[in-house]
Amino acid sequence: MSPLTTASAEEIKDVDAAYGLQNYGRFDLVLERGNGAYVFDTDDKCYLDCVSGLAVNALGHNDHDLVEAIRAQAAKLIHVSNLYYTAPAAQLSRTLVANSCADRAFFCNSGTEAVEGALKFARKYAAVNRPSEARGIVAFENSFHGRSMGALSVTGQERYRRDFGPLIPDVDFVDFNNIDWAMHAIHDGICAVIVEPLQGEGGVNIANVDFLVALRARCDEIGALLIFDEVQCGLGRIGTLFAYEHFGVEPDIITLAKALAGGLPMGAILCKQRVAQAISPGDHAATFGGNPLVAAAANVVVDKLIDLDLPQQAKECGEKFEARLKALQQKHATIKDVKGLGLIWGVETEIDASELVAEFQARQILTCQAGPEVLRFLPPLIITEDSLMGVADVLDEILTNREQV
Ligand SMILES: *Cc1c(COP(=O)(O)O)cnc(C)c1O
Fold first, then answer.
1. Rounded to the nearest whole angstrom, what is the distance from the C-alpha of residue 174 to the centroid of ligand 1?
2. Which ligand 1 atom lies nearest to the CA of residue 255?
3. For ligand 1, mutation pick of 108, 196, 231, 256 (most atoms within 8 Å of CB)
4. Which residues pair with 253 in a beta bridge?
């Protein structure tokens, strides 16, 4: 059988249809290469990428420094296991700790795994530090934390959980931003509260500062740990290097992934020293976690985020995009809400978001959804202001055309 590297889009789709699991509803597009904020399909047709591999490719595509670092590290050493020390992982731990409120870093391979580990750390912390049995977890409606049994157990969306039970017990879901309900739910039997400071998959919903402050205070009161799932909103996406900085509330544990290694699979758990103290050798591990290849890539990503101040750039660019989107909301009655921060934006309309995604794709712009009603923009952090204004113009055009029919 011949390799598919030079096959047509139709052939590639046919092979996937015949052999892939069919668990994805893919767009009708076969992508081949990328450069900066653009990707190209098998016919070399160009698309402005406002998905970034789902908030992954913060530096865009084909970033020279990232590609060179991966190439050089691959030729040196790809993997050796965590039985040994390697420089890239040690350097990455140091950078993440030096630039955050955390004291320690652990590396794994995805956001799901980071959440899974964070929940284990919280359980272990409670086992070591709490006199009573505190096993319960408080999570929030419309959250998304991943699809493994543990991460799914704290994901507050029925459509992902249905048919996979029984999941882990003792998880309470509270309405996002509902302080009274949260204060009631976070009782002595709770070991952890897990929250996205900005819910990505669940509709681009921003936490209120008061709400996060209240969670912090209540966790401190009873000795529970506060986990911020920054897998999507962290690493510059909302305009600060770590999402917690935007809100001024420090969690005990931060989960990271998506943008971390520029598209290579990598997750991280950052935590305070008192959490790290509860973890003994052998309590948790990941064979691939922080291997030299992914860590070398992550060092480039994180160093560039910091050195080029990409979070600040995302913030400034995002403010201009927000102003344009809000102006469009005034103009088009179909826009119900415009929400976001930095370079994650959700536009809630009366139109099925999948139809809007299709219309954007027809105009050579890739977008995605956050639930059925919200059109979501996740451009690379290196996108130019001009490109973003062009995206807003296209939204204007799509909505105007629809209003005329
Ligand atoms: C994407 C996401 C995850 C899961 O990450 P994977 O790398 O897909 O396992 C977890 N939490 C949040 C907030 C996410 O956006």
1. 20
2. 11
3. 231
4. 227, 271
77-307 belongs to CATH 3.40.640.10:
yes
CB-based pocket (< 6 A), ligand 1:
110-112, 115, 144-146, 196, 200-201, 229, 231-232, 257-258
Q: Has residue 395 got a pLDDT over 80?
A: yes
Query: How far are the Cα atoms of 101, 153, 263, 292, 337 from residue 295, in angstroms, in the given order?
Result: 20, 29, 12, 5, 39
In tens, the pLDDT along 142-193 reads: 999 999 999 999 999 999 999 999 999 999 999 999 999 999 999 999 999 9
Average pLDDT over residues 232-243: 98
User: How far, in Å, from the CA of 266 to the mean position of ligand 1?
Assistant: 11
Architecture of domain 9-63+309-403: Alpha-Beta Complex (3.90)
According to DSSP, residue 207 is labeled: P
Token digits of residue 212: 């996060």
Query: What rounded mean pLDDT belongs to the chain?
Result: 97
What pTM value is reported for the model?
Answer: 0.98
Residue 376 in contact with residue 54, Cβ under 8 Å? no
Closest among 373, 375, 336 to 357, alpha carbons compared = 375
How much distance in Å is there from the Cα of 262 to the middle of ligand 1?
Answer: 15
19/11 Cα distance (integer angstroms): 12
Distances (CA, A) of 262 to 53, 209, 393: 10, 29, 29
Spell out the domain ranges in the chain.
9-63+309-403, 77-307
Do the Cβ atoms of 77 and 88 come closer than 8 Å?
no
What mean pLDDT do residues 305-330 have? 98
Instruction: Report the chain's C-alpha Rg in angstroms.
Output: 21
Q: How confident is the model at residue 93 (pLDDT cuts 50, 70, 90)?
A: very high
pLDDT category of residue 131 using cuts at 50, 70 and 90 = confident
Q: Report residue 160 as tokens.
A: 């992902």
